[in-house]
Amino acid sequence: MGKFALYRQMIGRLDEAIEGRHFFEASWYVYALLEDRLISLLSANSG
Questions:
Q1: Which distant-in-sequence residues (6+ apart) come within 8 Å of 23 by Cβ?
Q2: Which residues have a Cβ under 8 Å from the Cβ of 25 and sit 6 or more positions away?
Q3: d(Cα 30, Cα 20) in Å, to the nearest integer?
Q4: Which of 12, 24, 26, 28 allows an S-S link to 17, with CB 3.0 to 4.6 Å?
Q5: pLDDT at 47 (0 to 100)
Q6: Does the model's pTM come out above 0.85?
Q7: Spatial separation of the C-alpha atoms in residues 22 and 18, rounded to whole Å
Q8: Contact, 17 vs 29, CB < 8 A?
């Protein structure tokens, strides 16, 4: 699964969690997205 498809899936789950008022679950989706972006940024700038 490509990164774009993964992000679309995660954002869809995030939207569903927010609509269902499951804010703790939603916060974990946000955390996962931010962590992935941070790791990509650090990997790109480490060399």
A1: 17
A2: 17
A3: 16
A4: 26
A5: 56
A6: no
A7: 6
A8: yes
The pLDDT of residue 26: 98
DSSP the chain: --HHHHHHHHHHHHHHHHHTT-HHHHHHHHHHHHHHHHHHHHHHH--
Residue pLDDT, tens place only, 1-47 = 788 999 999 999 999 999 999 999 999 999 999 999 999 999 998 75
Q: How far is CA 39 from CA 16, 32, 33, 34, 46, in A?
A: 26, 11, 10, 9, 10
Tokens found for residue 20: 């269902």
